[in-house]
Amino acid sequence: MSAKRQINLPGCIIPGNIFLAPIAGYSDAAFRSICHDFGADLCFTEMVSAEALARGSCKTKELLTRAPNEKLLCIQLFAANPNSARRAAAALIPLKPALIDLNCGCSVPKILKSGSGAALLKEPEKIKEIITAIRQEIAVPLSVKLRSGWDSTSINYLRSAQMAIDGGAVMITLHPRTKSQGFTGKASLEHLAELKKSVTVPVIGSGDLHSAEDALTMIETTGCDGVMFARGAIGNPFIFKQTSILFKGEAPRPEPLQARQRLDTVMLHLHRAAEFKGEKIACREMRKHFCAYTRGLPASAQFRSRAVHAKHISDYEKLIKYYLLEEKLHIKYT
Ligand SMILES: Cc1cc2nc3c(=O)[nH]c(=O)nc-3n(C[C@H](O)[C@H](O)[C@H](O)COP(=O)(O)O)c2cc1C
User: Fold this and answer.
1) Pairing state between β 42-43 and 48-49
2) Is the predicted pLDDT of residue 253 greater than 60, yes or no?
3) Is the pLDDT of residue 324 over 90?
């Protein structure tokens, strides 16, 4: 049976089940648009502050720029109280998001200190209050993104999910690690399977997905409805196409990528980023993406150390041109 399926939410049909995660510092309009080109069915913005949106912060609104090929967009909020969440939701109305997601998993100290992100796992009733407040303001489907719990002594994803659903959430994403684990240990497929058995809304799995095969294993092992790539998509948007092919059962293994395809894609990404942010900022921000796209290429360390100095699009173009000449186009990425 094909693992590829659409996700039907009240008020929104997502055409497939392969998502890009909210990734602070990465999932901006340029990267999301590249991921859509390669077959992502839905992309999440990075988390934005409900407090800042409620205050009308322009900087925060800039984070919500939408790419022309983004028919559907999920905006992720972090919020600590229902009132600012409600006012933030009102500010989102003109942006017409397909979905609004509440971050209940971020473990960054600054976010936790504000009472948002994974801090909400300590008081799941608050998740319900925040979702209810947003729902009263905006008629857009709502979802939450959870971790398994605060720590190993307080695993409560089932209760947190139920609170969210009671408030009106229509989809749950689970990154099945505790806040205390951060990114250590392994994402628990058992928690994901348990959640899928316990709720009737679609469940999306996040965590340790670094290949199309990982995604298929997650679906087959847990029965979850969809998958969400985060670190596995950084520098590797090709993973969406590979997963789509695998989910449809069209090919047992994706083809290895040519270096040329990686480098063409990083340049396309840079041009898009420049359209959204201007050349100067795009070139600066592109360095981390560039490192990720070129990881594993022959002689890539030297190549990347040169990219640190790139200030203009033409610098990146020259770098790539010389690299390809040096490698005589015979390189293959495996
Ligand atoms: C650099 C970075 C930034 C992240 N930013 C967010 C975020 O803004 N909101 C969120 O819910 N999760 C965020 N996450 C968590 C991811 O969405 C994802 O759940 C987690 O990385 C597990 O998936 P992975 O193992 O495939 O990376 C972030 C993760 C990383 C590595």
Assistant:
1) unpaired
2) no
3) no
**pTM, whole model, 2 decimals?**
0.95
Instruction: Write out the DSSP string of 267-316.
Output: HHHHHHHHHHH-HHHHHHHHHHHHHHHHTTSTTHHHHHHHHTT--SHHHH
Please state, in angstroms and rounded to a whole number, the distance separating the CA atoms of residues 260 and 52: 41
Three-class secondary structure of residue 256 per DSSP = coil
Q: What pLDDT, on the 0 to 100 scale, is given for residue 256? A: 59
111 pocket-lining for ligand 1 (C-beta < 6 Å): no
Q: What is the pLDDT of residues 167-194, one digit of tens each?
A: 999 999 999 999 999 999 999 999 999 9
How far, in Å, is the centroid of ligand 1 from the Cα of 26?
Answer: 10
Task: Pick left, alpha or beta for residue 57 (phi over 0 → left; psi -120 to 50 → alpha; otherwise beta).
Answer: beta
| Beta strand ranges found along the chain (DSSP E) | 7-9, 12-14, 18-20, 42-43, 48-49, 74-78, 99-104, 142-149, 171-178, 203-206, 226-229
Residue 268 φ/ψ, nearest 5 degrees: -60, -40
Residues marked as catalytic: 106
Domains of the chain from N-terminus onward? 7-247 (3.20.20.70), 259-327 (1.10.1200.80)
Asked whether 75 lines ligand 1 (CB < 6 A), one says: no
The angle at the Cα of 43, spanning 40 to 47, to the nearest 5 degrees, equals: 155
Cβ(18) to ligand 1 under 6 A? no
What is the atom index within ligand 1 of the atom nearest the CA of 229?
Answer: 26
Question: What is the average pLDDT score of the chain?
Answer: 93
Tokens 């201007």, residue located = 278
